[in-house]
Amino acid sequence: PAPAGLLGDPDPEEAVSDDSSRHGGRVRGFPHERGNWATHVYLPYIAQEEFLELLELLVSRARTYVPSLAAMEEFHLSLSQCVVLRYHWIEPFVRSLRERLAAFHRFFCVADQVKVYTNQNKTRTFIGLEVSAGHFQLLELVSEVDGVLEEFDLPTFYKDPSFHISLAWCVGDLSGRLEGPCLRELQDIVDGFEDSAFLLRIQWEQIRCKSGNKYFSFPLR
């Protein structure tokens, strides 16, 4: 049976297209199957004007090394991998998350170290800001999220994760072009940006779960 309380209803007849040209050449991490919902738990970050100014400087410099680089349109810090939920699992999954995360309070992180990442199958490269302070609280959150994932026999988060906010991306493994001189130049921009110490000290106020086109929020106390 379909769970109650979800925003919107699935369209069982909706046509599915995996045409990568429609989404910037990105390739699915796993094939789409009807009834499977890509699900992700994360901390959302609402970018301020100063952050977008810093982002513009970083992407402009990085494009001198990789012209195809595109700035992210939304920002977050992941607490889970992208996993697959069956539709009828969504409601109990969200309920379990809500119970496990209810006791957590708001906290701060510092995300000020520029780093280059690739996804697992090396089809995309990212520039991100890695967390340099706040690991303990993030690991506590991941431990609870992992507990929910284990209940549903789903993959848990990475061992020894590098917590970060992705800033920009491109198709393919172009990490070799972005590391070295480019990375050092980007770090210099971050270190020299006015008020960067204040700007990149981030207070997290809620956790979010996205499953397909549905969003669920869990406010921190």
From TrEMBL:
Residues 1-25 are annotated as: Disordered. It catalyses: a 3'-end uridylyl-uridine-RNA = a 3'-end 2',3'-cyclophospho-uridine-RNA + uridine; a 3'-end uridylyl-adenosine-RNA = a 3'-end 2',3'-cyclophospho-uridine-RNA + adenosine. Pfam families: HVSL (PF09749). GO terms for biological process: U6 snRNA 3'-end processing. It comes from the Eukaryota. GO terms for molecular function: 3'-5'-RNA exonuclease activity; lyase activity. GO terms for cellular component: nucleus. Gene3D superfamilies: Cyclic phosphodiesterase (3.90.1140.10). Transmembrane segments: none annotated. Keywords: Hydrolase, Lyase, Nuclease, Nucleus. 3'-5' RNA exonuclease that trims the 3' end of oligo(U) and oligo(A) tracts of the pre-U6 small nuclear RNA (snRNA) molecule, leading to the formation of a mature U6 snRNA 3' end-terminated with a 2',3'-cyclic phosphate. Participates in the U6 snRNA 3' end processing that prevents U6 snRNA degradation. In addition also removes uridines from the 3' end of U6atac snRNA and possibly the vault RNA VTRNA1-1. This is U6 snRNA phosphodiesterase 1.
